[in-house]
Protein backbone atom coordinates (compact mmCIF):
# COMPACT_ATOMS: atom_id res chain seq x y z
CA UNK A 1 0.00 0.00 0.00
CA UNK A 2 1.22 3.49 -0.74
CA UNK A 3 2.73 5.37 2.20
CA UNK A 4 0.49 8.39 1.57
CA UNK A 5 -3.08 8.37 0.37
CA UNK A 6 -2.10 10.47 -2.64
CA UNK A 7 0.71 8.10 -3.67
CA UNK A 8 0.17 5.54 -6.44
CA UNK A 9 1.38 1.95 -6.21
CA UNK A 10 3.13 0.61 -9.30
CA UNK A 11 4.69 -2.80 -9.83
CA UNK A 12 7.60 -1.24 -11.71
CA UNK A 13 8.57 2.05 -13.28
CA UNK A 14 6.43 2.74 -16.33
CA UNK A 15 3.71 0.26 -15.37
CA UNK A 16 0.09 1.21 -14.85
CA UNK A 17 -1.05 1.84 -11.31
CA UNK A 18 -2.03 -1.41 -9.63
CA UNK A 19 -5.47 -0.14 -8.65
CA UNK A 20 -6.26 0.98 -12.19
CA UNK A 21 -5.26 -2.46 -13.50
CA UNK A 22 -7.44 -4.06 -10.83
CA UNK A 23 -10.36 -1.86 -11.90
CA UNK A 24 -9.89 -2.95 -15.53
CA UNK A 25 -10.01 -6.59 -14.41
CA UNK A 26 -13.14 -5.93 -12.33
CA UNK A 27 -14.74 -4.17 -15.30
CA UNK A 28 -13.83 -6.99 -17.67
CA UNK A 29 -15.21 -9.69 -15.38
CA UNK A 30 -18.41 -7.75 -14.73
CA UNK A 31 -18.82 -7.01 -18.45
CA UNK A 32 -18.55 -10.72 -19.25
CA UNK A 33 -21.05 -11.44 -16.47
CA UNK A 34 -23.45 -8.78 -17.72
CA UNK A 35 -23.31 -10.13 -21.27
CA UNK A 36 -23.73 -13.73 -20.10
CA UNK A 37 -26.71 -12.96 -17.86
CA UNK A 38 -28.49 -10.26 -19.87
CA UNK A 39 -31.00 -12.79 -21.20
CA UNK A 40 -31.69 -14.02 -17.66
CA UNK A 41 -32.39 -10.45 -16.53
CA UNK A 42 -34.58 -9.84 -19.56
CA UNK A 43 -36.84 -12.80 -18.74
CA UNK A 44 -37.59 -11.20 -15.37
CA UNK A 45 -39.25 -8.23 -17.07
CA UNK A 46 -41.00 -10.07 -19.90
CA UNK A 47 -44.66 -9.37 -20.64
CA UNK A 48 -46.58 -11.36 -17.99
CA UNK A 49 -49.30 -12.52 -20.39
CA UNK A 50 -47.32 -13.33 -23.55
CA UNK A 51 -43.87 -13.82 -21.97
CA UNK A 52 -42.47 -11.68 -24.82
CA UNK A 53 -39.33 -9.66 -24.03
CA UNK A 54 -39.84 -5.93 -23.53
CA UNK A 55 -36.66 -5.07 -25.48
CA UNK A 56 -34.35 -6.92 -27.84
CA UNK A 57 -31.52 -8.91 -26.27
CA UNK A 58 -28.50 -7.15 -27.83
CA UNK A 59 -29.57 -3.59 -26.93
CA UNK A 60 -30.50 -4.79 -23.43
CA UNK A 61 -27.06 -6.37 -23.13
CA UNK A 62 -25.41 -2.97 -23.65
CA UNK A 63 -27.57 -1.50 -20.87
CA UNK A 64 -26.45 -4.23 -18.45
CA UNK A 65 -22.83 -3.57 -19.44
CA UNK A 66 -23.34 0.15 -18.81
CA UNK A 67 -24.60 -0.56 -15.29
CA UNK A 68 -21.58 -2.81 -14.66
CA UNK A 69 -19.18 -0.16 -16.01
CA UNK A 70 -20.67 2.59 -13.86
CA UNK A 71 -20.21 0.39 -10.80
CA UNK A 72 -16.64 -0.46 -11.76
CA UNK A 73 -15.32 3.01 -12.38
CA UNK A 74 -17.27 4.86 -9.68
CA UNK A 75 -18.11 2.60 -6.74
CA UNK A 76 -15.57 -0.06 -7.69
CA UNK A 77 -12.59 2.26 -7.32
CA UNK A 78 -13.74 3.22 -3.82
CA UNK A 79 -14.20 -0.43 -2.90
CA UNK A 80 -10.77 -1.34 -4.28
CA UNK A 81 -9.23 1.41 -2.18
CA UNK A 82 -11.12 0.14 0.90
CA UNK A 83 -10.05 -3.43 0.16
CA UNK A 84 -6.42 -2.36 -0.18
CA UNK A 85 -6.55 -0.50 3.13
CA UNK A 86 -8.37 -3.38 4.83
CA UNK A 87 -5.87 -6.01 3.64
CA UNK A 88 -2.72 -3.95 4.18
CA UNK A 89 -1.44 -6.12 7.02
CA UNK A 90 -3.12 -9.33 5.94
CA UNK A 91 -1.16 -12.38 4.79
CA UNK A 92 -0.90 -12.53 1.01
CA UNK A 93 -2.76 -15.84 0.70
CA UNK A 94 -5.87 -14.32 2.31
CA UNK A 95 -5.91 -11.04 0.35
CA UNK A 96 -7.76 -12.30 -2.75
CA UNK A 97 -10.51 -13.75 -0.56
CA UNK A 98 -10.89 -10.53 1.42
CA UNK A 99 -11.16 -8.58 -1.84
CA UNK A 100 -13.69 -11.13 -3.07
CA UNK A 101 -15.90 -10.70 0.00
CA UNK A 102 -15.83 -6.92 -0.45
CA UNK A 103 -16.78 -7.36 -4.11
CA UNK A 104 -19.55 -9.77 -3.18
CA UNK A 105 -21.11 -7.32 -0.75
CA UNK A 106 -20.61 -4.22 -2.90
CA UNK A 107 -21.82 -5.59 -6.23
CA UNK A 108 -24.63 -7.54 -4.58
CA UNK A 109 -25.98 -4.33 -3.07
CA UNK A 110 -25.52 -2.56 -6.42
CA UNK A 111 -27.56 -5.24 -8.17
CA UNK A 112 -30.27 -5.20 -5.53
CA UNK A 113 -30.79 -1.45 -5.70
CA UNK A 114 -29.50 -0.08 -9.02
CA UNK A 115 -30.18 -2.93 -11.45
CA UNK A 116 -33.54 -3.77 -9.89
CA UNK A 117 -34.55 -0.08 -10.07
CA UNK A 118 -33.57 0.07 -13.73
CA UNK A 119 -35.54 -3.08 -14.47
CA UNK A 120 -38.52 -1.87 -12.44
CA UNK A 121 -38.55 1.38 -14.40
CA UNK A 122 -39.11 -0.62 -17.58
CA UNK A 123 -41.34 -3.24 -16.02
CA UNK A 124 -43.67 -0.75 -14.33
CA UNK A 125 -44.01 1.40 -17.43
CA UNK A 126 -44.55 -1.44 -19.91
CA UNK A 127 -46.17 -4.20 -17.86
CA UNK A 128 -47.69 -2.36 -14.92
CA UNK A 129 -45.85 -4.57 -12.42
CA UNK A 130 -42.54 -4.57 -10.58
CA UNK A 131 -40.07 -7.37 -9.90
CA UNK A 132 -41.17 -10.04 -7.46
CA UNK A 133 -39.13 -10.45 -4.28
CA UNK A 134 -37.81 -13.76 -5.61
CA UNK A 135 -36.55 -12.00 -8.75
CA UNK A 136 -34.81 -9.34 -6.67
CA UNK A 137 -33.23 -12.06 -4.51
CA UNK A 138 -32.04 -13.93 -7.62
CA UNK A 139 -30.68 -10.70 -9.10
CA UNK A 140 -28.85 -9.86 -5.86
CA UNK A 141 -27.28 -13.33 -5.60
CA UNK A 142 -26.27 -13.22 -9.26
CA UNK A 143 -24.61 -9.83 -8.84
CA UNK A 144 -22.95 -10.91 -5.59
CA UNK A 145 -21.39 -13.96 -7.27
CA UNK A 146 -19.99 -11.86 -10.11
CA UNK A 147 -18.70 -9.27 -7.62
CA UNK A 148 -16.94 -12.04 -5.71
CA UNK A 149 -15.29 -13.41 -8.85
CA UNK A 150 -14.35 -9.98 -10.23
CA UNK A 151 -12.64 -8.73 -7.08
CA UNK A 152 -10.92 -12.08 -6.51
CA UNK A 153 -9.43 -11.92 -10.02
CA UNK A 154 -8.55 -8.24 -9.60
CA UNK A 155 -6.44 -8.87 -6.52
CA UNK A 156 -4.86 -12.03 -7.91
CA UNK A 157 -3.94 -10.63 -11.35
CA UNK A 158 -3.86 -6.84 -10.96
CA UNK A 159 -0.07 -6.61 -10.75
CA UNK A 160 0.34 -8.79 -13.84
CA UNK A 161 -2.04 -6.70 -15.93
CA UNK A 162 -0.37 -3.48 -14.72
CA UNK A 163 2.76 -4.42 -16.69
CA UNK A 164 0.78 -5.14 -19.88
CA UNK A 165 -0.44 -1.72 -20.97
CA UNK A 166 -1.72 -2.68 -24.46
CA UNK A 167 -3.88 -5.47 -23.04
CA UNK A 168 -5.21 -3.27 -20.24
CA UNK A 169 -6.11 -0.43 -22.59
CA UNK A 170 -7.72 -2.83 -25.10
CA UNK A 171 -9.92 -4.29 -22.35
CA UNK A 172 -10.78 -0.79 -21.15
CA UNK A 173 -11.62 0.34 -24.71
CA UNK A 174 -14.06 -2.54 -25.18
CA UNK A 175 -15.78 -1.65 -21.90
CA UNK A 176 -16.00 2.03 -22.83
CA UNK A 177 -17.44 1.31 -26.29
CA UNK A 178 -20.07 -1.04 -24.87
CA UNK A 179 -20.93 1.43 -22.09
CA UNK A 180 -21.35 4.30 -24.57
CA UNK A 181 -23.63 2.09 -26.66
CA UNK A 182 -25.48 1.33 -23.42
CA UNK A 183 -26.02 5.04 -22.79
CA UNK A 184 -27.40 5.52 -26.30
CA UNK A 185 -29.69 2.49 -26.00
CA UNK A 186 -30.88 3.49 -22.53
CA UNK A 187 -31.78 6.99 -23.73
CA UNK A 188 -33.65 5.49 -26.70
CA UNK A 189 -35.50 2.93 -24.55
CA UNK A 190 -36.53 5.31 -21.80
CA UNK A 191 -37.38 7.99 -24.35
CA UNK A 192 -39.97 5.64 -25.89
CA UNK A 193 -41.66 4.68 -22.62
CA UNK A 194 -45.26 5.79 -22.20
CA UNK A 195 -45.74 8.37 -19.45
CA UNK A 196 -48.39 6.17 -17.82
CA UNK A 197 -49.82 2.75 -18.52
TrEMBL record:
Record bears the keyword Transmembrane helix: yes
Protein name (record): Cadmium transporter
Origin species: Bifidobacterium imperatoris
Superkingdom of the source species: Bacteria
Keyword Transmembrane helix: yes
Keywords linked to the UniProt accession: Membrane, Transmembrane, Transmembrane helix
Highest classification ranks of the organism: Bacteria, Bacillati, Actinomycetota, Actinomycetes, Bifidobacteriales
Membrane-spanning intervals of the chain: 20-45, 57-82, 94-116, 136-157, 169-191
Amino acid sequence: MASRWTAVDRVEQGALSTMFAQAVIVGTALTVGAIACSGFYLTMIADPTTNAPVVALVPWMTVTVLIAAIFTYVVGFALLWCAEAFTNRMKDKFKPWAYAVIGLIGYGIWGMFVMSSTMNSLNQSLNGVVLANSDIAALTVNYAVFGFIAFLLAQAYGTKLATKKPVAFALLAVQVVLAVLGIIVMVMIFGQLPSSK
